[in-house]
């Protein structure tokens, strides 16, 4: 008769035995900043990874007047695979060939978005530790040291990825704007004129760069919080005071 009562206890893992839920940690700087980092990582991921746009030209050639052609592009911004729809090759005297946008910016965009996704997952893991195992976190030096090392590395990666992505975004604007027309050979054919018409606003991509900078600043501040709010600071003080 004792087996039914012992079965639940046997199914409880050692980790669950040490679980002590304490949501007050979220009101402290260490936990509150982690929540902000989690939210900003989501925004950085969404504003860059969810973008879709198109650029449009107005083409006039023999037999075809004011024909609009459009090239749709999106994350991860492999623009060299994006082609304009032909206005009418026969109508243009057979001079029109497939026109592709210029540049492949997938590495910069994917670096930025992948970092945001990894940070999102790490923040969830850290919050679980803070809320459920804060007593272990404070007593075991390995957890604060790991958290500190990750914070330093993440702040650096946000710095690098944000500036790399900002440079790529500037090049994307050039490749999809009016400055691309001189590089289109089909527009140089006799009797053919091309005029830039419009491009989707990239304000949301500008916002993604801002979120990258905010993440960098927040993670840099988190380095100090991890050092100050754990026993690492006290241990360092004891070491420095010892003869």
TrEMBL record:
<protein>
    <submittedName>
        <fullName>SYPL1 protein</fullName>
    </submittedName>
</protein>
<dbReference type="GO" id="GO:0030672">
    <property type="term" value="C:synaptic vesicle membrane"/>
</dbReference>
<keyword id="KW-1133">Transmembrane helix</keyword>
<comment type="similarity">
    <text>Belongs to the synaptophysin/synaptobrevin family.</text>
</comment>
<dbReference type="InterPro" id="IPR001285">
    <property type="entry name" value="Synaptophysin/porin"/>
</dbReference>
<feature type="transmembrane region" description="Helical">
    <location>
        <begin position="111"/>
        <end position="133"/>
    </location>
</feature>
<feature type="domain" description="MARVEL">
    <location>
        <begin position="25"/>
        <end position="231"/>
    </location>
</feature>
<dbReference type="InterPro" id="IPR008253">
    <property type="entry name" value="Marvel"/>
</dbReference>
<keyword id="KW-0812">Transmembrane</keyword>
<keyword id="KW-0472">Membrane</keyword>
<keyword id="KW-0325">Glycoprotein</keyword>
<feature type="transmembrane region" description="Helical">
    <location>
        <begin position="35"/>
        <end position="53"/>
    </location>
</feature>
<feature type="transmembrane region" description="Helical">
    <location>
        <begin position="204"/>
        <end position="227"/>
    </location>
</feature>
<feature type="transmembrane region" description="Helical">
    <location>
        <begin position="145"/>
        <end position="166"/>
    </location>
</feature>
<dbReference type="Pfam" id="PF01284">
    <property type="entry name" value="MARVEL"/>
</dbReference>
